[in-house]
Please model this.
Amino acid sequence: MQLNPLAGVGVEVTDLDLRCLSTHQTQRLQQQFAEHGLLIFRDQALSELDHLALAKHWGEVNTNRFFQAHPEYPDIALVGKEPDQVTNIGGGWHTDHSYDEEPALGSILVARELPQQGGDTWFVSMYRAFEGLSKGLQSLLLDLRAVHSAKHVFGKSSSYMQAKVEAARLRKPELADALEDPIHPVVIRHPLSKKPSLYVNPGFTLRFEGWTEAESKPLLDYLYEHAVQSEKVQRLSWKPGTVAFWDNRATWHYALNDYQGERRMMHRVTINGSKLTAY
Model:
């Protein structure tokens, strides 16, 4: 097994077959995952059952509420875009499941069908985002909590959701509307690494607790801009056999929508996490 740290965030792992991990290899991957928050594997040949078995090395599988499910394996979410569809899923900076009281640990995404070019995914590190702030701003953020929500993205009033439901790409908006908006620390103690990680994101964070949205916006916008400075962004170019495993508590991601007229189909398995605590 070869480990190649990436410039922006993560580690690329080669010379490894994910279908037959030894105990030692699993332990090394767990260490790298905790430290970096993103593992990229190349040249894999995972079946759907292999994909699910890999996820279970890390924890209990989370069945997605909103994504269309694989017809034979309901714990696999389908993240796809057909040639006649204009918008994609995940086309903006976000981290998954921050709208849950116990946000998911992370997701394992397997490339099943790729466009001839385009369709890359960007990643950034929330460890690095926090480390790059001034001591004064770090101190301020340590005392803040933020409100997160799924309603404006996956609820019935969301035009994004309405369009995706009509195209049979997403489902069950009533479940988003029924969720209580959770409040999480703005800086969490990462459950695995114990390092401080910035935990707000443009997709699902509404405001700071006790602040209005208007009051929150300038500081949130500053943090978002700071986090995605070009030198901090890691670009993943997908190839057949590529598998990505990211930590929702330590990274954001952004799926590029630059392959109009072509099909892209990814299979995603998500792993349950735990309640987050302040750093």
